[in-house]
Every structure is written in structure tokens, then in C-alpha cells.
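Side project, low priority. Logging it here so it doesn't get lost.
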Amino acid sequence: MDKKNLFWMFGTLQTLTLGAIIYLVFRSLNMIAGVSTIGHDTQIVLSVLFPLFLLITEYMIYSKD
């Protein structure tokens, strides 16, 4: 396998896993508190944008020669 393909495979896996962890942490905090600590839309935005930003940053570092 090519190094670039490995990066995208594991980078995507890392991004999806991190997004799921962030989503589940905020969901469990809402369940424990009994009230909404953050809104559902903010929870989804944080779960998507933070891992995506991390993937883009890692790609910029990886592709730099």
C-alpha cells in the first residue's frame, strides 16, 4: 500500500473515532446533569468540526516536504 493511502485510511478512522467519542461524552454529560449542558446542534458541530480540523492540520503537516 502507498503511504498516502495509509494516511487517509487511518486518518479517516481516527477522525470518525474522535468525533464519536466527543459526541458520546457530551451526550453522557447531558444525561448525567439531567439538563442540557450544550444544545444538540452544538454537540454535532463540535463532533464534526474539531476532528475535521485535526485531520486537515495533520494532512498539512504530513504533506509538507
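Brief comment: Helices lie at 3-33, 40-63.
Revisit when time allows.
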